[in-house]
Structure formats: C-alpha cells, structure tokens
Amino acid sequence: MKRTLAGTAVLAVVLTISALAQTGSAAPGGVATPIAPTTPAITATSSGVKVGIIDIQQAIVGTNEGARDFEALQKKFEPRRSELQNLNTEVENLKKQLNTQGDKMNEEARATLVKSIETKQKSLQRSAEDAQNEFQAQQNEIAQRILQKMAPVIDKYAKAGGYGLLLDSSNPWPQGPLLWATASVDLTKAIVDAYNVQSGVAAPAAAKPAGTAATKPATTPAASKPAGTTPATAKPPSSGTKP
Fold first, then answer.
1. pTM attached to this predicted model
2. Domain map (residue ranges) of the chain
3. What is the distance between the alpha carbons of residues 143 and 29, in angstroms, rounded to a whole number?
4. Helix crossing, 64-76 with 78-101: angle to 10°?
C-alpha cells in the first residue's frame, strides 16, 4: 500500500489553506472559540518564521469522525471480502483436485476442470479489482470530506500561533518535502483535537488499547487475492486497509 492518501484531495486542501491565509476567511459556519496553539513548541527559522509540521494522513484517521467513518467503511465491505475469500477457496480446491486427480481423468473431464478453474479465476480477479477500486473511491471520498473541513481549522490554528510555514509530514523524504524535524514542532494532535471540538463527533465507543497509535488508511485496499495466494485478513484502516 502506498502511504499517500487521496493525493488530489490533499492538494485541494493545501490550495484552500493558501487561499484562506491570503483572504483571512474564517471556517464555514464559524467557530465560537478561536483555535489557539496548545502544547507543541514553536520553532523559528533564522528569519523568524515559525515552522510546524502536520501529518495530514494521521490527522484524518485520528479524528473522531475519521475513525468512525473508516470503521463503518470496513464493516460495509465485510460481505464483499467474505465473497472473495470464498471464491478464492473454491478456486484453490479445484486446483488441488486437478493436481491430485488430473492424471487419472479422461481428456474431456480434465479439460472441463481446467476450463472451470480458468473461468472462476478470471471472475475472482475481476471481482477483486472491482472491490478494490470501489473501496478506494469511497475511502478517498471520506478523506476528501474531512480534509475540506480540516483546512479552515489548520488556517485558524496557524494564524493564532503566528506560524509562517506548515509542512505535511505524511510522506518521508524524498517522496515528501520534509527531511527532518523534531517532535516539538509536530502539530498533528493539536489539529485533531481542534477538529474534534469543531465537529462535535464523539470518540468511537470501542477505543483502542492504551499505547496503540492510530494508523493511516490505505490508498489501495488489497481485496482477496486470485487463486494461488492466501486471502488477506481484515485489518483496521492502515497502510494495509482492505475491503
């Protein structure tokens, strides 16, 4: 899985933040209490510009809204995953039958079995690709929606703290712009907390065990694999999220 989540959505939000910074627009609907920087220390460059980093992917899934909606998406695709796993098992069983009994079959029976395996395997491949594409599209829709609402939150926070530069730390260098940074300039948690206050969405009832870090949703979910491989089991939204 690629670590990049909804790349076009991220770009759209970056442009939105830039526009807000230039116009001074507030978040849609307004926020009663100004968002003020909390615990992260502020680092200034030699020119006096305050710099901060935000892991956008982590921020998306770290919000109560993101955790709720990605979990719901996982549950929605459980039936599809089961169907693909069952079809994969069926193909595997037919292949085992061919390997163990093929030399004992007459030519017609063996040809029929081979044709059945090929047909079911193609069906599995198409179904897996369809499920993967549909899962990814819906996952990106969730990310796009949350990012659009998070942009004004970031804008308010940056202005309140006097930040002159914020960098996305989702992807490590050279894929991303950030080469190195200390934890003291990481604003991800502060942005997540501010977003949760604004959204009003309660934390998921089934909280993760203490010390368990939130994981990033996948860009490309791996549906059940074609015959010859072991179907992947379900995981929470992460770098291995699957439909």
1. 0.66
2. 7-152+180-199
3. 20
4. 40
